[in-house]
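My main concern about presentation is that the manuscript never shows what a single data entry looks like. An entry of this sort, consisting of the sequence and the corresponding backbone structure tokens, reads as follows:
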Amino acid sequence: MVQRQEGEVDEKTWVYDSSVDHKGRLPLRASTGVWKASLFIIAIEFSERLSYFGIATSLILYLSKVMHEDLKSAAKSVNYWSGVTTTMPLLGGFLADAYWGRFSTVLISSIVYLLGLILLTMSRVVPSLRPCGAGTCLEPRKVHEVVFFLAIYLISIGTGGHKPALESFGADQFDDDYSEERKKKMSYFNWWNFGLCSGLLIGVTVIVYVQDHVSWGVADIILSVVMAVTIVIFCVGRPFYRYRKPMGSPLTPLLQVLVAAIAKRKLPYPPNPSQLYEVPTAKKTQERFLCHTEKLKFLDKAAILEDNGDSAEKQQSSWRLATVTNVEEMKLILNMIPIWLSCLPFGICVAQASTFFIKQGATMNRKIDNDFLIPAASIYSLAAIGMIASVTIYEKILVPVLRQATGTERGIGDGFSLVGLQEYFYDQVPDSMRSLGIAFYLSVIGAANFLSSLLITIVDHVTEKHGKSWFGVDLNTSRLDKFYWLLAIMNMLNLWVYVIVARRYSYKNVQRRAAVAVADCYNGDGVGSMA
């Protein structure tokens, strides 16, 4: 009894979740992590989203007004840039988890992001780099095109490391094995989105207003200064952060499971899952175990102990014998693929917000009292205001009620698309792939942007072949209403597919009882739906 009380006191004092403080020591719970660290992280996310949406929402207007691209070409250019920007996190997340660590990845990518903003500012302010020497021109200078596109793709590279590493670094400040902090982490994702949407809201109101009524260059200077200041703020919070050391390539253990399962494909399954191989009970500072599941049973062969006289060294080779936890991690990734694919049609709809929606806004009567003209890109603010309001209602009213009604700490968070996708991909990946988990979420939007460009090309070709293209030179010669009906039908059909896939999905289960060598999810040894 005395030992148990000492253990509880020790756990309240120190953090045992594989993290360290800024000096590489065991973190002190009272002075590190949780909200005292997350606020610094949310601040730099605010700055990044301010810059991103200040640029992204007005990009199609800049391409059509200044670069003189037609509607179809401008929409494709935006989709390509958005696609690169939201798929680059796959590389950034991999580097963060495997080699650089999340703090270093965020810092390096933020500096690259800042360099992109400075270069973008120069392309609009420095006389020799501006689109025209004076006044307006039918075609911008080639040097402006080169510098402009180099700048925005530098921002894409910066986002690639910034976005997955920062969000998962923020979530790392909460200990999943400590109930008080685990509940706070559920709130973290909601307030993360609150900060995100606050940056979005100011970006699509204040920044685009400056772009429309002052100059593009002044808006870029504001974004560069804000980013520089928040990088300093992020570094000031360094003593309060909890850090996780990079663990090498997270893909290697998955490949080892596949190789071991193929090598032992002819072996019979053991009569009891407890006979599968698992490492001895983990110490507090080691990674958590996952409990055994029955799905994708072929992969279980990677954890079968061979009785063929091989030496212990050969049997212990990671390419010949995998732990149950590694096998279950491979199952998690394979189970996520159908969910990822079924989210793509939703992502295609999201892609329209930064292209056709903005162009439609530009054709509306946006005057208030004949004196104030609302910028076209500010149409994006409606979504931001809605999410800011809903996050507060969701966090303070819905979650407590639904948590009690459903019996889960998550309430019904997975029923809300973007926040739900963030939580889902972060929670359901293996512990060693948390940054990649955020990248998987972003890659849905990234892949959907490329698919949106492909869909525009196909629809344009087919409709032009059968009369008149749905995409003309401008909105007045286009039939976007028919294109939107096509998207609605696609998503209606996809909804049925998603429901079927979701009903068959098995959540990640973390072992609850450390004394069990191989935890069996069906005997209550695991905590379902939890990270």
Remarks:
- The radius of gyration is 25 Å.
